[in-house]
Amino acid sequence: MATGLPVFQIDAFTAAAFGGNPAAVVFLDGPADPAWMQHVAQEMNLAETAFAYPEAEAYRLRWFTPGAEVELCGHATLATAHALWETGRLPRATTARFQTLSGLLTARWDDGWIELDFPATPAAATEPPAGLLDALGLTTARWVGRSRFDAVVELESAAAVRALAPDFVALGRVPVRGVAVTALSDEPGCDFVSRFFAPAVAIDEDPVTGSAHSALTPYWAGKLGRDAFVAKQVSARGGVLRLELAGDRVKIAGQAVTVLEGQLLA
Predict the structure, then answer these.
(1) Is the separation of the CB atoms in 150 and 177 below 8 Å?
(2) 124-247: what CATH class?
């Protein structure tokens, strides 16, 4: 792999540095060896590292955690769009188009916010997978479902979501990519809260998870009878998302801040 590749670290779903969810973004000249990309993601040691290169009228985009390639990632997509516009690779008026393992995704800039257009991944009610509630330190849950990627668990209160202290070793044995735990918000101006745990792909707790809201948005739309929401992920870093269900798509909007820029030399 050629050296001197541009790399950025960007905090996504936040208006201020050191909040939200950090992602690394590497711009490539063309396709790269997946094993090399996995090594870079391990070196970055962030929830996701995004790799992007021009392809026809779009960018090919792939996402790697320190442990695996994933099929859908919100915050690293938002970070990549932010980097494209910030560096002049795309004009702000141009919609960013990404070819991914989840099909075509787009991002548009709107007065300091970046709106992603993602596929909805609604969760269907199910019995809790073996070990799930125990790993979360729970005896019961208000609702449990399964989306394309994740388990979704509703609790009785936002306070209960904040108080969770999972057993990550046990949670990593549950056969899902991750676990989104959610409840109605107890804060004015916010509709629901969540936390997201994914030890199976080497992320004990993800600070802010755009892709999880592809399932959480249709879930809360069904419960509350409306399509637009403000949500908070109540991790230690925290983050705010504006959400809208649009048929079989979910609009996921957030802000982003560049905190590091450099070159990848290996």
Answers:
(1) yes
(2) alpha beta
pLDDT at position 3 is 72
Domain 124-247 in the same topology as domain 5-117+254-264: yes
Residue 172 banded pLDDT, cuts 50, 70, 90: very high
Domain segments of the chain as ranges: 5-117+254-264, 124-247
Q: Pick the closest to residue 160 from 195, 209, 128 (CA basis).
A: 195
Q: Tell me, what's the pLDDT at 37?
A: 98
* Residue 156 annotated in active site: no
Architecture in CATH of 5-117+254-264: Roll (3.10)
Taking alpha carbons only, the member of 12, 26, 1 closest to residue 261 is: 26
User: CA angle 98-103-106, nearest 5°?
Assistant: 35
Task: Exactly one of 48, 115, 154, 205 is catalytic; name it.
Answer: 48
Dist. CA 170–CA 187, nearest whole Å: 31
Label the pairing between strands 143-146 and 239-246: unpaired
What's the DSSP call for residue 94? S
Under the banding of pLDDT at 50, 70 and 90, the label for residue 2 is low
Q: Do the Cβ atoms of 167 and 135 come closer than 8 Å?
A: yes
b/e per residue 51-78 (b: at least 16 CB within 10 A): bbeeeeebbbbbbbbbbebbebbbbbbb
Summarised one tens digit per residue, pLDDT across range 55-94 is: 999 999 999 999 999 999 999 999 999 999 999 999 999 9
